[in-house]
Automatic annotation (TrEMBL):
Entry protein name: diguanylate cyclase
Domain GGDEF: 352-480
Superkingdom of origin: Bacteria
UniProtKB keywords: Membrane, Signal, Transmembrane, Transmembrane helix
Length: 480
């Protein structure tokens, strides 16, 4: 009881107006000691996930290491590394109690059985990597019958098994080994983290692979602690919350596109010795050698400028692809979910109304014999244009999945949403290109309810969509 009361007192102090300053200025060793008597937490990391985190020469390096140093300074907690050989072994260690914490991981249903989680402190996209010549893939739904390589123990394994059980998975030890196996043709597509894959490609000089799409969901990384010490989480969460944005940006810039080498580079040493030897033997060649190096430097600078320009273009493309559907130009599923969560937060704070419309393009007769993908894509583009021309500027239109579109209507009650949904149906049924293609829409509508998250809200709207299909072509169904 004394231990619990001191912990509660410490958490309440953190919420006081002076808590942030106290936490930033001095370690809270006395209070932390009441939770962990030796003031030390043992932890495991992914030993081969640079630049996010890695073990090199027995030392923990990477983004997570920098954040842990800051949190240690703020809280007075000492973190002690327990080395492991693989990510799967790190998960087994924390599950067995050989280490008390994992430094950087996502939340998953399986991990919740033996871990409690801090708030996220770093977010990063996941990507699909394949050999050059593979077309752009629209997430997991676009993989088709290709085999997929993924690191054993990653949260994505649970996600794919649950939502895309038809995909053929090959479990690998690490992303670095996975890239080599991908080049050897042991599988077709690899799921990996953007910064980590980029680092491995640079370090191993891999030329024959390319990023071909994004893999949902993106990483939202935090600490996972053994349930036996979960009372340390409020302290860690408060430390994460007060880390300045400037420090976060500094860490990101430090590790973005950094090449972490796996062995000593003896080539430079040999070249240096040879250069010294050549200078001693033939001083008369000095001027020619200097001129040669100047020409090489100029050439390398030109190459670097060219690569920087290419990288900027690719970054802009990736930024656009992360929020937009490549076929219709509408927002994609991830962006819609993000906007919906923002609207739910606004509803909880200010009780502003919001409505959600889900519409699906369906044939007016049996068209299963028609398989022309170009024709289907053209109709989807037309439907996207009709939706954009019909909704209001504040509404968010997205291609949610396949032939389904979602429209988020902020500050809109159910009656106003019904007017907009009917207007959409009228616009679609009046479009000759859609009707001549023997297509129409089914439309479901619902408004946001008290205590409802996005999955529940979308599920109610989706049920209304199925009701619309049962009612007939071009009919609106409103969720209860």
């Amino acid at each position: 009881m004394a231990r619990l009361s001191v912990s509660v007192l410490f958490i309440s102090l953190l919420w006081s107006p002076f808590a942030t300053a106290q936490l930033a200025q001095a370690p809270t060793s006395d209070t932390t000691s009441s939770i962990l008597p030796d003031n030390t937490i043992s932890y495991c990391v992914d030993p081969d996930w640079a630049p996010y985190e890695a073990i090199r020469n027995g030392q923990h390096i990477g983004i997570s290491a920098d954040y842990m140093r800051i949190i240690s300074d703020y809280t007075g907690i000492a973190f002690q590394l327990v080395p492991t050989e693989s990510w799967q072994e790190s998960l087994e260690f924390v599950q067995a109690g050989k280490c008390q914490m994992i430094s950087m991981l996502n939340v998953s249903d399986f991990r919740k059985q033996f871990l409690d989680f801090s708030i996220p402190y770093f977010e990063a996209p996941n990507i699909l990597v394949a050999r050059k010549g593979t077309p752009i893939l629209q997430g997991y739904a676009g993989i088709g019958n290709r085999s997929v390589g993924i690191v054993k123990g990653y949260r994505q394994v649970e996600y794919i098994t649950r939502y895309y059980p038809e995909l053929r998975l090959k479990l690998i030890k690490s992303e670095r080994e996975g890239l080599l196996q991908l080049m050897q043709g042991e599988f077709d597509v690899m799921v990996g983290s953007l910064m980590s894959v980029n680092t491995h490609i640079n370090n191993q000089n891999i030329q024959d692979v390319a990023i071909v799409g994004y893999a949902e969901p993106f990483d939202s990384l935090g600490f996972g602690v053994n349930k036996s010490i979960s009372d340390i989480l409020p302290i860690i969460n408060q430390a994460i919350a007060i880390i300045p944005e400037t420090k976060r940006v500094e860490i990101y810039r430090q590790w973005n596109d950094v090449q972490v080498r796996y062995q000593r580079d003896y080539v430079k040493l040999v070249m240096t010795l040879m250069f010294v030897l050549l200078v001693v033997i033939g001083l008369v060649w000095r001027n020619r050698t200097v001129a040669l190096y100047k020409r090489l430097m100029k050439q390398k600078n030109a190459e670097i400028e060219s690569l920087q320009t290419t990288l900027l273009d690719r970054n802009r493309t990736l930024e656009f692809l992360s929020a937009h559907d490549s076929l219709t130009g509408l927002y994609n599923r991830n962006h819609m979910i993000q906007k919906a969560e923002e609207e739910i937060s606004r509803f909880l704070r200010f009780h502003t109304r919001a409505s959600l419309i889900v519409l699906e393009l369906i044939p007016t007769k049996d068209r299963r014999h028609e398989t022309d993908p170009q024709h289907c894509e053209q109709v989807l583009k037309i439907l996207a244009s009709v939706c954009l021309a019909t909704v209001r500027e504040v509404d968010v239109v997205s291609r949610f999945s396949g032939e389904q579109f979602a429209v988020l209507c902020p500050q809109t009650n159910l009656a106003e949403g019904e007017v907009l949904a009917e207007r959409l149906i009228t616009a679609v049924t009046a479009n000759r290109d859609i009707t001549e293609a023997d297509m129409t829409v089914a439309v479901g509508l619902s408004d946001l309810k008290e205590g409802e998250g996005f999955p529940d809200w979308f599920e109610r709207t989706h049920k209304a969509l199925y009701q619309s299909k049962r009612l007939g072509f071009g009919k609106l169904a409103i969720a209860e």
